[in-house]
Amino acid sequence: MSNEFDCHYGEKEFKTVDAGIEAIEAVLTGDDIHAKERLLYYLDWYMDPYYKKDLSSLYEPLKELLQRVVVYDSDTGVAEEALHLLEAYTEGPYAILKENADNVAEEFRPTVLYLLNEDNW
């Protein structure tokens, strides 16, 4: 995350998630690093099974989007938080990570390999 990490999500992030995967993707592929951080921080709460949010329509597209963020986002903190969400709240297979494992930042490779190998247990 950035040096000025903004963990204070609010109405904007609630509305983004309520609007669906296109709105989430617009933020996570956009240029506003702080907007990405706030949304990812909110998604950590939103995806946590403890809070019993209905992820049925978002689960697969969000899993794919988070994989793309891990592979393609140039901000290490953003990619790291996306990887955390994948590891904490999703299950494989992770086709995008598998296809792009060589393009993942070196510091994330152990976690990516762990996720890819979970299916072999």
Short description:
By secondary structure, this protein is an all-alpha fold. The protein has helices at residues 11-19, 21-28, 33-47, 59-72, 76-89, 95-99, 109-117. It is globular and about 35 Å long.
Characterise the protein shown here.
The chain is mainly alpha-helical. Helices cover 61% and strands 0% of the residues. Helix 1 packs across helix 3, helix 2 (21-28) runs parallel beside helix 4 and helix 4 (59-72) packs antiparallel against helix 5. It starts with 10 loop residues before the first helix and ends with a helix.
Keywords:
single chain, mainly alpha, 121 residues, globular, 61% helix
What's the structural blueprint in terms of helices and strands?
Blueprint: H1 11-19, H2 21-28, H3 33-47, H4 59-72, H5 76-89, H6 95-99, H7 109-117
Helix pairs in contact: 1-3, 2-4, 3-5, 4-5
